[in-house]
Design goal:
alpha/beta, Polysaccharide pyruvyl transferase domain-containing protein, Rossmann fold, Polysacch_pyruvyl_Trfase
C-alpha cells in the first residue's frame, strides 16, 4: 500500500501553517484514501521563529512569556490533531525517510520562500531518491524575489518532480514554470465548514465582538474595525493586543474566534481564508505599508469573486464572504490533481 509523506511548515507557531498542514493530510487520508502523514522535519530557520531573538533582556521578558504560552498552545494542538511521523528529522538525516514513503508531497504554504526557510532546499525535495514520486501541492513563494541564478538553481530541483502545482500565479512567473502549471487552493479550503467546526474549540463568550487579525503592518484594518464596532456596539478582539486572544491563541481557538465573530477585519491570507470558509462578514485590506498590494489576498479575491470584501480608507464596511460554489470547485480541482498524481 502507498504511504504518503508531506513536507511543509507544520512546526511553525503560525496559525495558517499548522492548519493548512492538518487540512492537506486529512484530505489525502480521507478523500484520496492513501495512508498519509506529515514528515516531522525541523528546519532551523523555522524553529528560530518560535523564540525571541536579540534585543534588550528586560524588554524581552514579556515577549518571551508570550512566546512560551504560544509554543505550549501550538504543541498541544499538534500533539492532538496532526498525524506526524514517528521519527523526527533534521537536514543531516532527512534522507532516512526514503525508506518510509512511496510518494513525497511538498506543500502547501510558503515552503519555496527561501527567506522563510533560510535557503533550505529540503523543501524542494532534494533528498528524495530517484525511484520515488515527488509532487508539490499549492506550494508558494510568497512575496520573495530572486536573482536569475537562484531561480535556475531551484528549477534544477523542480525538473525531477512528477507533478507541480502552486498556490499563486505569481509563483509560476517567479520560478519560470510552464504557463499551464496547475494553480490549486490553499489546503484549508479542502475541508468543509462542518469539518472545521469539529476542529474548533468549544467556548462560551457572552459579549458580541469584532475580530481583528493582523499579520502585516496595519494600514486600514484597525480604524475600519473601530468604526464598524462603534456603529454596531461591539467589543474588539485584536490578536496582537487582547489578553483574551493571547491566552487562547492556539489553532483550534483561532477557528472559534473567527466562527463566533460578528465580523472579521484582517490583512492576513489565512484570516481571509477562514472568514470565507465560515461565511463571515469580512473586511480585508490588500494595501501594504510600503504601498504595494498583498498579492496573496488579491489573487484569492480575484479567483473567488469576492472583491467587495476589500476595505480601504473610504470603504470600511465588511461584506458577506459567500463563495460556496467556488469552494466546491476548488475541492474538485484539488481532488483531481491529487488522485491523478499521487
Amino acid at each position: 500500500m502507498k504511504k504518503i509523506g508531506i513536507l511543509t511548515f507544520h512546526g511553525a507557531d503560525n496559525l495558517g501553517a499548522v492548519l493548512q498542514a492538518y487540512a492537506l493530510c486529512e484530505f489525502i487520508n480521507k478523500e484520496i484514501n492513501f495512508r498519509t502523514e506529515i514528515i516531522d522535519y525541523e528546519c532551523e530557520e523555522v524553529e528560530k521563529t518560535r523564540y525571541v531573538q536579540g534585543g534588550n533582556f528586560v524588554k524581552k521578558i514579556p515577549l518571551a512569556l508570550y512566546y512560551r504560552i504560544k509554543r505550549h498552545s501550538f504543541d498541544r494542538f499538534r500533539k492532538k490533531n496532526l498525524m506526524l511521523s514517528s521519527n523526527k528529522y533534521k537536514k543531516e538525516n532527512i534522507k532516512k525517510c526514503n525508506t518510509m514513503y512511496s510518494t513525497f508531497v511538498a506543500g502547501s504554504d510558503q515552503i519555496w520562500n527561501i527567506g522563510c526557510s533560510g535557503n533550505d532546499t529540503t523543501y524542494f525535495l532534494d533528498f528524495v531518491e530517484q525511484e520515488k514520486r515527488k509532487i508539490s501541492y499549492a506550494a508558494s513563494m510568497g512575496t520573495t524575489e530572486m536573482e536569475k541564478e537562484k531561480v535556475d538553481e531551484l528549477k534544477n530541483y523542480l525538473n525531477s518532480f512528477d507533478a507541480i502545482s502552486v498556490r499563486e500565479a505569481s509563483s509560476i512567473k517567479k520560478l519560470d514554470l510552464p504557463k499551464d502549471t496547475s494553480i490549486l487552493p490553499d489546503p484549508v479550503f479542502l475541508l468543509t465548514l462542518e469539518q472545521w467546526r469539529r476542529v474548533a474549540t468549544k467556548r462560551k463568550l457572552k459579549k458580541r465582538y469584532v475580530f481583528v487579525y493582523l499579520i502585516q503592518e496595519d494600514v486600514n484594518v484597525l480604524k475600519s474595525a473601530k468604526k464598524y464596532a462603534k456603529e454596531n456596539e461591539c467589543d474588539i478582539i485584536i490578536n496582537k493586543k487582547s489578553v483574551e486572544f493571547i491566552l487562547n491563541n492556539a489553532p483550534d481557538h483561532f477557528l472559534w474566534w473567527i466562527e463566533n465573530a460578528e465580523a472579521v477585519f484582517t490583512n492576513s491570507f489565512h484570516g481571509t481564508a477562514f472568514s470565507i470558509i465560515f461565511e463571515k462578514l469580512l473586511g480585508a485590506d490588500i494595501i501594504l505599508k510600503n504601498g504595494k498590494h498583498n498579492n496573496r489576498i488579491e489573487e484569492l479575491f480575484d479567483s473567488a469573486g469576492l472583491k467587495e470584501c476589500i476595505i480601504s480608507e473610504e470603504n470600511y464596511v465588511p461584506k458577506k464572504a459567500n463563495a460556496k460554489k467556488w469552494l466546491n470547485m476548488q475541492r474538485k480541482k484539488a481532488y483531481e490533481f491529487l488522485k491523478e498524481n499521487i
